[in-house]
Automatic annotation (TrEMBL):
An annotated GO cellular component: cytosol
A molecular function GO annotation: ubiquitin binding
Top-level taxon: Eukaryota
The protein, known as: Ubiquitin-like domain-containing protein
Entries under CDD domains matching the protein: Ubl_ubiquitin_like
Compositional bias per record (Basic and acidic residues), positions renumbered to this chain: 122-132, 139-159
Chain segments carrying region Disordered: 88-166
Coiled-coil stretches noted in the UniProt entry, renumbered to this chain: none
């Protein structure tokens, strides 16, 4: 039996499976084409009334015929995010071996930690500023620093003049 699978990316896969093939067998055939794990594949089948139905993970052992799939049936293929697959495996106690998909999720979390570190450094600077400490400027003064210093000097001179007048 030949089925047409429309991938979310816009490509089509014509898969040839036996009349008594299961959902899992079709997913295995598709997985080799799209080069992804069977666990990441989500199928939506169209039955004879042309209504669409999501095939659940626990239905992988069902026969395609029992789902209303016939010759030249049209299906849709979506993908689960690798993090979701990892969490599902971990919750079922099967997430011991690190796969390539898990490594990508670790890289994502490390990237998030880098941002957290930068936020923490920013908070440290804020605390230091509140405590009256100034950042080191490597010996360079800015125009703003000069203006502040000039303003303080003028204020002191103004106070001295007021003392003389009174």
């Amino acid at each position: 039996m030949k089925v047409n699978v429309e991938v979310i990316t816009g490509t089509f896969i014509d898969a040839e499976v036996s009349e008594n093939a299961t959902v899992k067998e079709l997913k295995e055939r598709i997985a080799t084409e799209v080069k992804l794990s069977v666990k990441r594949l989500i199928l939506v089948v169209e039955d004879e009334e042309e209504s669409r139905r999501l095939v659940k993970d626990d239905e992988d052992e069902m026969k395609l015929i029992d789902l209303g799939v016939k010759e030249d049936a049209h299906m849709y293929l979506f993908f689960k995010h690798p993090d979701l697959v990892y969490k599902e495996e971990k919750s079922q106690g099967r997430g011991d071996n690190a796969s390539v998909e898990e490594l990508s999720s670790e890289a994502e979390s490390k990237r998030g930690n880098k941002e957290e570190d930068e936020d923490a450094k920013g908070e440290e600077k804020d605390i230091a500023m509140k405590n009256g400490e100034e950042e080191e400027k490597n010996g360079e003064e800015t125009k703003d620093d000069d203006n502040v210093q000039d303003g303080k000097k003028k204020a002191r001179e103004g106070e001295n003049e007021m003392d003389i007048v009174s």
